[in-house]
Fold each of these.
Amino acid sequence: MVDVTRRLLSRTRLSPEAMDAALSLSGLRPGPSEWRDFGIRAMRFAGILSLAAGIIFLIAFNWDDLGLYARFGMVELPLLAALGIAWTKGLDRLSGKLSLMLAVLLAGGLLALFGQTYQTGADVYELFFGWAALTLPWVIACRYAPCWALWLLLLNLAVGLYADTWLHSWLSPVFSNMDWSPWFLPVLLNLLLYVTVISLGRWPDLGLSENWLRRAIMAVAMMFGTFSMLYRITSGRRQPEGSDTVVTVEVLLFLVCSAAFAVHAFVRKEDLFNFAVLALSWIAVTTTMIGKATITSRDPIGPLLILSIYVIATSAGAVKGISYLGRQWKTEEAVS
Amino acid sequence: MTLEELAGVLASRGLITEPSLAIDPPPPGGGSPWYVSVMMGCCAWFAGLFLFAFLLIPLGDFIFHSGRERWDALLILGVICCVAATLMYAAAKETSSFLNQFALAVSYAGQIGMALGLGGLGSERVAIWGMVVVEAVLTFVVRNRLHRFLTSLGTVIAWAVATHELIFRELPGSELFTSKAGPSEMSVVSIVVWIVIWAPVAYGAWWLVRNEGRWMAAGEDALVRPATNGLIAALSIAPLATHPVAFWMALGFHHGPDVPQGSTALWPLLAILLAMLSMALGFALRNRALIGLAILFGLLELSAFYYVLGTTLLLKSVIMILLGAILIGAAQPLARASK
């Protein structure tokens, strides 16, 4: 809407003074109160991040000379203070939400300190799993999209690190001798997260209905899916025996992801973002396939031109398609 | 507020004579959402690389003939590609997706050719400063919003690389495997020069945002809007290119003996400042994509601040806790005033 109004104003023949006034009156330029709100939010958010980073840096510092109680007190006191502020301010206010978010961050620091002090021998992914599991109730209570984003990042890190080592884990008897790509589990996770966020997004109070959160999950899922496919295409015949099933499952998951994201966007008729990401992903995958099949060291020139034209044509086609859908949705919206 | 209501208010203030707004017909095509532009830019970049390789391989024998390198041929090829792209954009309608994408890919191929040609004919320094000029010229000459955004972003990135080379006498990344990071990288002078170099870019972005009404009224929206967005995006992205090599070494991107890290931890902090400015300018234009980009790069720099060596974690911790306390403290009176 902002872009449309701006484009309309840019086609008027107003004087500079009138244009300035028009920009302010039409809400294209933030007023003093909006600037103040933005300043408060930005400073508080950056302040909380700085405090959390500072305390985590402090934990990471090698405190050989400090006693056990002092070391734990360094994390637990700020953690309790953050929880206390969240309690007194209430979770309907930004300051309360930010305090609880700080507590979520510090909980990770506490777990890391615990592992460092008692040498638990836990893998890094276990730290992240524990962090995500323990803080989930706070994240639900916080009902704040950035806090959810932080939690989803923790979960992704946990699963990503786990996928890296899972052949040596309790799943190894089931999946032994199977060459799973390290991106398979993250794709599956983010697909499930997407479905969950969409389902829970019906209740705006949960803080999960922000568009950017859904977009980020979708983009991450497709990014891992694309990596997974590129890994399969480029590794080609070097794959070990018995990995056909694995490859089939991974390709199927990529197809299911693509179809799910496309169908959801098509049914909702609200956001074209999914189509742009899908187009980019599919162009990358198919270009790699064509390149792998055609480029040889003897005659690389022809295939290079074909690849170039293919990428241009498919991306141009995608733009056409996305623009057509956008126009179609606007028309349908106007009619209804 | 509708356009009629807006015209009524402007007329009542005496800013326009009649209570209606004359609007020129819209240019064909309109603008694409930012994510479609990102997709187009990425695809065109790869298509440009393929195209450049396609052009270079048959000419390879001529350009690199028996030890005698003809970099001028590569430069001419680059210029021809850029001119062809400019002509294609001039001939193409905004709605012609294929021709626009093809022109962008040809332009990318031309820019790569010109950078390599300038580097081969002169030196790395000639190539980088040459690209500052080329990117700036393309911003003015090529009549396409996405191309203008990318070339204005490219201008600042080239400017950042060029000034990096000027301060540290090295190309970003070029010394990673030789552990040659020198003491000049850590000197106070280098930091002052860094600020002097970024001040005009930051001021330029701020000035353009502040004078938005003026250039919109002058009918310069098609040129200045994408250039402004490119400049603001560059404030988030380009500072990465000005970090000294020691910074990347301190992040572990090197092999070989350790080098003195000095005050490398300062560079991500400086970059965070620019990202915050970029976020504020994005807010002034109500551009969520620019705000998101600034937050993303600000967080990346923050994590780099953690990992980079050069100072103790204790000092970093004190800096962050103090900064956090100051920011939260400064927000309090503002919050009270807003009540």
Note: Chain B has a mean pLDDT of 84.
Amino acid sequence: MTLRLMTVLALVVAVEVGAFYWRHHDVVRLSVSRGTVVADAGFPEAARAVLARERISRRVLERVADVAHERQEFDLQIRALERIAGTYPDDGQVRLRLAQALREAGRLDEAERMYRAELGRASDGGAR
Amino acid sequence: VSLKDRPSRHTTLDADTTLAFVDVPLRRHMRKAAALVGLAVYAVYLGYRGLYTLNPDALAFSLAVYLAEVHGFFSLAFYYFQIWDVRRRTVPAPLEGLSVDVFITTFDEDVDLLRQTVRGAINMRYPHRTFVLDDGRRPQVQALCAELGCEYLTRATNEHAKAGNWNHAFARTSGALIATFDADHVPRADFLERTLGFFADPAVALVQVPQRYHNLDSLQHRVDWRHRRLYGEQDVFFNLVLPGKDHWNASFFCGTGAVLRRVALEPFGGLVTGTITEDMHTSLALQAEGWKSVYLNELLVTGLAPMDFASYSSQRLRWAEGNLKIIRRLNPLTHRGLTFAQRVCYFASMYHWTIGLPKLVFYLAPPLILFTGRFPIAEFDRTFVLMYLAHLTTLVASYKLLAGGTGRLLMDELFNMANFYTLLVASARFLFGRRASRFIVTSKRGGDGGDDRAVAPHYVLVGFTVLALVWSGLGLGFGVTEDVVGAGVATFWAIYNLTLMLTVATFARRPLQKRQAVRFRATVPVELLDVPANGWLGVTLDLAETGCTLLWPRRLMVGTRLRLRLHLGPQLLDCDGEVVSSHDRIRSEWVGHGIRFHLTGPDAVDRLADALYNMAVPEIFTRLTRPSWAVRMARAVSSRLLGSTRFRAPRYEAFLPLRVQTRDGEEWLATTRDLSQGGLSLVSSRHVAPGRLVRIILRSPDGEWSSLATVVRATPMPGADESLRTWLVGLRIDGHADVVGLRHILSAEALA
């Protein structure tokens, strides 16, 4: 009887894993090795799906930003970094990376504003 | 026949004067203060929860958990109200010349089982008439009654089940007082002597005693023989709640082990029918009429608890459904004639059965959190954690303080888990059911082992929780969520619940007892009459009407036919037996043997049963009363602080047979209960006065040890039957050489 119950439970868990993949296949796709994701032609689609989610971990957003940078897809990189910066407003490194991404994407005015804002924050911190 | 209208010599007692406080005033005040603090902190916590922590993003879920907590608050408040003052009773001497009838209700129970109940009832010392009320209309029960000399009553139908059966007999008998027992509840010889005295108060309608169960391997018991601790699921009810209700004159009839006054029941034609819990229904009706109830917390009757999960659940379903449905017929909150305290106590007894739904909410909450990532609490911040910890700490502390060593929170939680679905069904039937409920007799023998259906809801919960844990693990692993703290809390909660669920499933799936008779832990000396034993003695480890486990210093071949002499206290029982198994004992030379008795007739069975119910059962319940570790430590510390510490050599529980000789040439057999390096205690069938010198001869497989010892105390063992009286005798061993010999035995036996 115990074996039967365990078998049933194992089968249900297997189905659940399938359901998890069906529900979160975009996240799973971004979680494989970095090289694989970089080479994945479906990356932009998966990244956009992830960015459209209401809740997603920083780890996945970092992966999107990182791979998008590698693939020179600056729009996706900027959206990911903006999302991180919105969730972690005290993280100066993210803002600097965002400014860098904006510069690389040719959005120089926005990049300059961000750099200046960051310098201002740094000098305020130093004065304190 | 009405005691209420009898002459004044019967009206000299006010039963309220027999109530005595269990605790000293300081402890009583501490208990009450703890109760108030526990409830106050709980109320503040609920206020904070309601005002600041409801989660608008998951409002339904949040409200469900909150309402479950509110339900818990009322549950606790009712509980503390009931045990506000726990009282015990002093027993007045019974009146002489009362006419007493004894009713034993039966439907389909084994005749062997019924036999010992009927014998126990007949053997009660106070003059009475015994009636067996057989709703099964069985010729063998009629023959049993004829053989034992009691009266047999039956009827053509089974209308109103047990209550109908009882009322049928009520109409055909005339005793002023009626003692009532279920078919498996064996009363002690002094049952009536201990209970009838209360009826000198003309307002007393019923006297109830606790239901204890002698099949300690039942589903609702957990026994720790090593630490001499017993947990019974109903201990809190019978040791705490009913004595507490008794303080409020709200203790009630529990269906068996009670004496009722005929004149009080006459307006109802006996027990009140219409629900499947006629006992509580009747009590409520009686108390509304102004009658008093008495609860006497003494071990005067023992019965059988359900062995398997299906029987257990079926019994609980009947109790829950019946108690809830009483509200429809006789609502204690609105029914006229009850005092405020009685209203609260009766309502509390009904409210208790509604915990199924709140418990389900608590069991479903962790998996829901893990699946959805949404919490029933808006913000899991420091304030909440502090409030929750304060609430939890005061709750546990007040519960433990008020329970006084009776309740065990974890075990109570376990049985809540075991019962949640049953109580859910009962609540649903109460709210939506329109059909009349059926009285189902609880099986005491256990089912056929197909218990998985009874725990199917628990399996579903296990599955749901496991899936939630997997889902949450996958989510955290792949980064769908990053709320490690939230998931961690929910995981901890889920694993706690999962442990309870799996333990319940393990209960239900445990191998069922296949023996026809209950095996009692009973250690009596045994001689083998036709084995050249050279003075060897054996001892039983357990004993039943059908056989025993015999510890013998040498191996006996399986299949060997034996002639045994059992020393049942002062009585000897010679019987034939056969060795059916043998097994070595770890770290001991003694060999355990399974023995099947071939008893020659009902007389031998009856004598053995008498010894079991009058010697073994009282000793078991006395032995298994060791306080918890915390209580023992507290006592040790307070003794040390008060300077009353007494240093004693460590004692090792050991059950060994030995011979006791006096200088007058008397010799008898006894069994040790514990050994230490300075002495031993033994159970003796003869009284030996303190100060006397005796020789004890103990033969173990390691050799013979003999010593002179001085009796330091001799106290009677519990039990009501004088013909089976035994004494616990403490012996001090004088002389270094003797102690060295005993130490050798100690090293072999104490470790065994």
Note: The longest strand of chain B covers residues 571-584.
